[in-house]
Amino acid sequence: MFLSKVSGVFVRLALGTLLYAMATLLHAATLPAKSDLARLLGHPAVIVEVIEPHLSTRDSLVKVDYLGYPADEVLDLLFGARWKEERGEMEFHALDGYVSRIPVERFKKYRAYLVFERRGQKGFTVDNITQNEKQVALGPYYLVWDNIAAPELIADGGSYWPYQVNTVMLSTLVTNALLPGDLAQSYGDHAALAKKYCLSCHQIRGYGGGKWPIDLASSVKSMTADSFKRWLLSPNEVKPGTTMPALPMAMPETEREAIARKLYDYLRVVPVTQ
């Protein structure tokens, strides 16, 4: 009985993924080897200093130097300059199934870089203290943001900082999977929060990442608001040693709690894929 239920869940996830793929226009490209980028872009790598979110806490901001290339130059190389005119998202796919979907508009507003080396350190790794992980491999590429020039980005923590990136996709997205029926009228902002903070690893109705592809619309239905909030705000207290990151600690606590509540309210009303 248990196996049949599990099989049914994965069938529903597969169907949801197929529906999502049918509703999305994708242009995919594999990132060139770092040895080729200097030749293709016509200049050597640049030094990028950032506040590293995976090493930083609310009380201690750690600066790190990386070597890499401006993300907009790499994206121009892969997709042509017209990618900036799209209203969709850039999808950064990692080797472990993690998918970071970042609005094209963000690249127009802030400076991002695809880096491949940590300057002055042997090995391209980082300790991800928010996820209880040591010496996490970052290659082949790690997307970082200039959060020194734009300190407002510090509050985002590691959101939109995907590592182990090898493939990029330009997607013109149809949001039917996340906002079926008339949910868009009341839950558009809620779905955007889910995309930013949850769906790089998890899924909703087949849309999301493949690192931990549980369907949140299904699993949260059996959770109380308090237990869900504890998972989002203090996952290590709920399950010591978990690799699930908390909502960014740099945010004010009232904002973190408000996001958790919006996510819970949204996931409770999203219908489960049949």
Describe what this molecule looks like in 3D:
The protein is an alpha+beta fold and 274 residues long. It has 2 domains: 2-23 and 176-269, Orthogonal Bundle (Cytochrome Bc1 Complex, Chain D, domain 2); 26-172, no CATH class. 34% of the residues lie in helices and 23% in strands. The protein has 9 helices and 12 strands. The strands form 4 sheets. The protein has a 4-stranded antiparallel β-sheet with strand order 1-10-4-5. Helix 5 packs across helix 9 (253-269) and helix 7 (225-233) packs across helix 9 (253-269). The longest helix has 21 residues, at 2-22. Mean pLDDT is 88; it is low at 1-24.
Strand order of the largest sheet: 1-10-4-5
Gross geometry: globular
Number of helices: 9
**Class per helix and strand makeup:** alpha+beta
From the alpha-carbon coordinates, what is the Rg to the nearest angstrom?
A: 19 Å
Q: Strand percentage, roughly?
A: 15-25%
Given as residue ranges, the uncertain stretches (5+ residues, pLDDT < 50) are 1-24
Count of strand segments: 12
Number of domains as seen in the coordinates: 2
Query: What does the average pLDDT come to?
Result: 88
What distance lies between the first and last C-alpha atoms, to the nearest angstrom?
18 Å
Give the biggest beta sheet: 4 strands, antiparallel
Helix content: 25-40%
Oligomeric state of shown chains:
single chain
SSE topology string: HEHEEHEEHEEEEEHEEHHHH
